[in-house]
Amino acid sequence: MDSVTSQIRERAKALLSEGKVDVVIGFTEGTIPFTARPVAVAHPEEVECLVWNRFCRLNLASYLRQFKDKKIGIIAKGCDTRSIAILCTEQQVNRDNIYIIGIPCEGMLSRKTLRERFGDTPEKVEIKDDIIEVTTSGKKESVPISNFLDTACRFCIHPNPVVYDEMIDDEVPIRVSQEEHYSLLREFEKKSPDERWKYFREEFSKCIRCYACREACPTCYCEECFVDSLNPKWIDKGFSESDLSIWHLTRLYHQAGRCVECGNCSAVCPVGIDFNVMTQKLSLDALQMFQYEAGMSIDEKPLLQTFKQDDYNDFVM
Amino acid sequence: MPEEFNPKILAFLCNWCSYAGADLAGTSRIQYPPNIRVLRVPCSGRVNPQFLFKAIQVGADGVLVSGCHPGDCHYLTGNYFARRKFLIAKNLLELIGIDPGRVQFSWVSAAEGGKFAEVVKKVTDKVRTLGPNTKMVKKKLEV
């Protein structure tokens, strides 16, 4: 058992038995290969189920609102802490009720890429430093872990917790520069509008409207989503390309200045729509035009709830 | 000779400035292209970017949003908030491939009848060169 896991268990046990928190949200071994399952632990004797590995892909901040009147301990990576900061600024959760155990993150692995490579039924999966060893039908393969990093993690510039009460383990070095962070987007923006539309209509047409992206997103928490609203009815039911485009476009627009690029939406999508270009665009716009980065502090006002008199004006006639 | 393309442009005009500006253009007998369909809104801040997406979906070839100059908003700050929203919405639309120029913004005060006519002319010319919009439009018979 590695040291982070044992430290998490120790701290969770201490917090629960001291009564500092009612529940600890963390990860346990997944029942599906290449995953870790989110779990909420409420008793000190249950902490042994908590683990930390390279499959702890999901953003746990999504679960905070379910425990609204409880004191919550949460195991949080860089992106999780930024989402928590946003939920605090938007007054969805109370910072005083949350105890954040920050963990510097070395980047999580994408289940999709691992599945494509090793299939659904590996016999044994082991991770040793930077090598992943997978045994399938008696044959052992060792591959460098960097081949399977999730897209969002590959371009992550905030792997270390931003807001936290205590931190386990040392900070990790930041692997990508600000400019590299937006490289997917930069590459994409070189295409012509028609090529871009061709790409997006193909991506969006795959959508089966399961709304997993919305459910997984920590900052998608409206009581009634615009897509469910019947009066006004913003978009029709059904699978027309136009409705699907508007659904994704609007959902992403609603994340402007709030998206922390955790990549949850792309990770949970059952048909594999890749939202990373669009989330990068949102973050780049906020940074370039308004010098704003989502979730970097809990005192900052949300991007669209404030303004400056000398905001960028050149696009207006 | 093929008939010239006459775009349909939806214009959201704020009640206090741009709508009055349009009115002034009319009473001053200033000519401007008849391609805009005016929708009066209380403030440019009232325009939810979703209106823009919806307008494109139901077949507008272009969209114009016009409000009071920064600092002149009847509600003091509505257009400042609108400016941030529009910039992000416009950039997203352009990212997914809607041609730049289909969605445009302007500040027109109640005294600027001439400017209003000019803005409409510019927008119409731009959208005319882009041609009919086919992206993200919902086809009538599509189920």
Properties at a glance:
heterodimer; A: 317 residues; alpha/beta; Nuclear Transport Factor 2, Chain: A; 2 domains; six-stranded mixed beta sheet; three-stranded antiparallel beta sheet; 11 helices; 14% strand; globular; B: 143 residues; Rossmann fold; four-stranded parallel beta sheet; 4 strands
Describe the protein's architecture and organization:
The complex is a heterodimer of chains A (317) and B (143). In chain A, the strands form two sheets. In chain A, strands 1, 2, 3, 4, 5 and 9 form a six-stranded mixed β-sheet that branches. In chain A, 32% of the residues lie in helices and 14% in strands. Chain A is an alpha/beta fold and 317 residues long. The mean pLDDT of chain A is 89. Chain B has one domain (9-130): 3-Layer(aba) Sandwich (Rossmann fold). In chain B, α1 crosses α4 (113-130). Chain B has a four-stranded parallel β-sheet, with helices on both faces.
Produce the secondary structure layout:
The complex is a heterodimer of chains A (317) and B (143).
Chain A (H helix, E strand, L loop, with lengths): L2 H16 L4 E7 L6 E6 L8 E2 L20 E5 L1 H12 L8 E5 L8 H8 L5 E5 L2 E6 L2 E6 L6 H4 L11 E2 L10 H4 L1 H7 L3 H13 L6 H5 L24 H13 L10 H5 L7 H15 L27
Helix pairs in contact in A: 7-9
Chain B lengths: L8 E6 L3 H10 L8 E6 L7 H9 L4 E6 L10 H18 L7 E5 L5 H18 L13
